[in-house]
């Protein structure tokens, strides 16, 4: 069985995939069948997040999930969809990562 922290990272990856799937739907004008992908990712994501919250505090879990998800979608948008990232955005992405690492190091879970 995956550890709680590994499960949280899987939830983060599904969150990033969800954000990218929404962009892909609008970017590539895919068929209605592909609209099921974000719905399936949302269901998987919420299930994983709920499982993690059984063990870790909800505030810590949510803060890490949202921060890493947002950073991941920003980076994926730049890599997959040629969205621009400024030096300031890159700096603050780093600040977000430092904050998440700090939250992890200060947690008891």
UniProtKB/TrEMBL annotation:
Report the Gene3D superfamilies cross-referenced here.
1.10.3730.20
* Domain of life from the UniProt record: Bacteria
One protein family per Pfam = Multi_Drug_Res
According to its UniProt record, where is this protein located? Cell membrane
| Entry membrane topology | Multi-pass membrane protein
Q: What is its main location?
A: membrane
Residues that span the membrane, as ranges: 29-50, 62-82, 88-106
Coiled-coil features, chain-numbered ranges: none
Q: Write out the entry's keywords from A to Z.
A: Cell membrane, Membrane, Transmembrane, Transmembrane helix, Transport
Q: Which family does it belong to?
A: Belongs to the drug/metabolite transporter (DMT) superfamily. Small multidrug resistance (SMR) (TC 2.A.7.1) family. Gdx/SugE subfamily.
Protein name in UniProt: Guanidinium exporter
- Please name the taxonomic classification of the source: Bacteria, Pseudomonadati, Pseudomonadota, Betaproteobacteria, Burkholderiales
């Amino acid at each position: 069985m995956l550890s709680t922290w590994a499960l949280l990272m899987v939830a983060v990856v599904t969150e990033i995939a969800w954000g990218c799937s929404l962009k892909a739907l609008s970017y590539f004008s895919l068929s209605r069948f592909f609209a099921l992908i974000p719905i399936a990712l949302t269901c998987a994501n919420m299930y994983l997040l709920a499982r993690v919250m059984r063990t870790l505090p909800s505030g810590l879990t949510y803060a890490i999930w949202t921060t890493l998800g947002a950073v991941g979608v920003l980076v994926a948008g730049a890599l997959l969809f040629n969205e621009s990232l400024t030096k300031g955005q890159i700096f603050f992405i780093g600040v977000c990562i430092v904050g998440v690492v700090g939250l992890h190091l200060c947690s008891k879970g």
